Amino acid sequence: MSSLIKFYWQLESTSDLQTVHTERVIPSGELQIIFHYRTPFKEISKHNQSLIQPQCLICGQQTEYKDVMTAPSSVGMLAVVFYPCALRSFFPNPVNEFTNQSIDLEDIFSAEIKELQERIIEANGVYERILLIENFLLGRLSIPNDFSLIREAVNIIAGVNGQIAVNEVASRLDISKRQLERTFLKNVGISPKKFGRIVRFNTSIKLFERATSLTALAYEAGYFDLSHLIRDFREFSGLSPKAFFEHPCQLLE
Predict the structure, then answer these.
(1) I need a labelling partner for 129 at 20 to 30 A (CA). Which of 30, 33, 163, 247 fits?
(2) Helix, strand or coil for residue 91?
(3) Is 13 part of any domain?
(4) What is the CATH number of the domain that holds 15?
(5) Whole-prediction pTM value?
(6) pLDDT at residue number 190
């Protein structure tokens, strides 16, 4: 499972929150399954569409930002973060069906998820919840035939911080560009080009602390110029780089 699941993270408050907290969630190139064992959160999309998250949900690849709001009550959630090409090892659906969506797991597994959710609510602590989730996932594990190919493509793109042409990735894998794009979309949820842009965007965030200026940051992260950095920040975070780094988003990752 360690080659498929990157990490787990938990958010919990045993007492009722007195105020609503809003977090901006930006594209990370990864996918998550979230289990709420207390009050679910509210999502507001980039396009100002809102929904209350299901108790158990798949958060597909994001290509745009969204805001997530806690309820003024006790919070309890556990998230499973998958490597970019790993989710399809547990779900037969093409992963691009989940892109920019929060999908109720009950719509896919029905009664199984209801039983799992009840056991997660009743579980005694985070380690027991993780064990329940891993047993559920192991029962559905089926590695796709093209998993190794797409994992290598992901590693090539991530290894150079997104700074590689799709044609070059396809050439290294000895497949056509069209085949790479089709298989990548099905297994990762977005195109290899978009994935590369998201990797580069997140690289720029990590490099900010040591950058001497935004222009220097743009070049160090691999952007052609500052205007391309600004474009990605506005698209993926809804903010200019200056505004983003002055008031950093607290990210649910």
Answers:
(1) 30
(2) coil
(3) yes
(4) 2.60.120
(5) 0.91
(6) 97
